[in-house]
Structure formats: structure tokens, C-alpha cells
Design a protein that fits this description.
alpha/beta, single chain, Rhodanese-like_dom_sf, protein tyrosine phosphatase activity, binds zinc ion, arsenate reductase (glutaredoxin) activity, oxidoreductase
Length: 130
């Protein structure tokens, strides 16, 4: 079964991110370290994304909704989302992932709309309540 990847707006994500079954995956590269990030987001840089997919799958065990983003969500975010979708198809793994989403306008759009940004240096970020 082919999975389709849909887009989600910042406003939708703001509400959704309170749910325990959602994981936000930041695939920006070095920008994450100086631009801040969405509170509670995981970091899997796009340049090493393919090597870390199985690690990612362990980390998101129990989540059913994955939201990808990069700076603008035009190239890296959708690319990594598609890579994950084809990985799941290849391994025929039923990981319980129902939805693979991409955040419209990416981190830059999120920040420009005045939504919460975390600037911690924790790996992973433990901040969910901003
Ligand atoms: Zn943080």
C-alpha cells in the first residue's frame, strides 16, 4: 500500500503537538544549532537521514503520526518524509505509523508566525510545554 504524504499547517501542528502519539522530526542540518527548534522536536539531519532511519524507528516507537520539517519544508523535509515512507514499504514493517506529514513553510514559517521556539541544546529536546 502506497502511503501518501500530506501537509499540515503550523496552526494544526500547534494543536496536534500536545498529543502523546505525535513526533516532530527536524531534518535541518547545522541550522538547528543556531536557529532554535520546535519544542520537543527530534533532530535527524537530512545529510545522514538514510543511515539513521532504523534508529529513528526505535525512537518513535508507539507514535503513530510523524511530522517532518526543515527550514522551509520544500526540499529536505518532503524528501526525508518520502524516504521514510519507502523504507516502511521496503521492510514491510508494521511500525504502527499511520500518518506521515510535512509541516508547511517549515521552521522558518513556524517562527515567523510567532509560534513557540525552543533554544535549548539538549539532545533530545525535552521541552514540550512552551
Ligand atoms: Zn529544545
Amino acid at each position: 500500500m502506497a502511503r501518501s504524504i500530506s501537509y499540515i499547517t503550523g496552526a494544526q501542528l500547534l494543536t496536534l503537538r500536545r498529543r502523546p502519539n505525535i513526533a516532530i522530526i527536524d531534518v535541518r542540518d547545522e541550522e538547528r544549532s543556531y536557529d532554535g527548534h520546535i519544542p520537543g522536536s527530534l533532530h535527524y539531519a537530512s545529510d545522514s537521514f538514510s543511515d539513521k532511519i532504523s534508529d529513528l524507528m526505535q525512537t518513535v516507537k508507539g507514535k503513530d503520526t510523524l511530522v517532518f520539517h526543515c527550514a522551509l519544508s520544500q526540499v529536505r523535509g518532503p524528501t526525508c518524509a518520502r524516504r521514510l515512507a519507502s523504507y516502511l514499504k521496503e521492510v514491510k514493517e508494521d511500525a504502527g505509523i499511520m500518518d506521515i506529514l510535512v509541516l508547511e513553510r517549515g521552521f522558518n514559517g513556524w517562527e515567523a508566525s510567532g509560534r513557540p521556539v525552543c533554544r535549548c541544546t539538549d539532545k533530545p529536546c525535552k521541552q514540550h510545554d512552551l
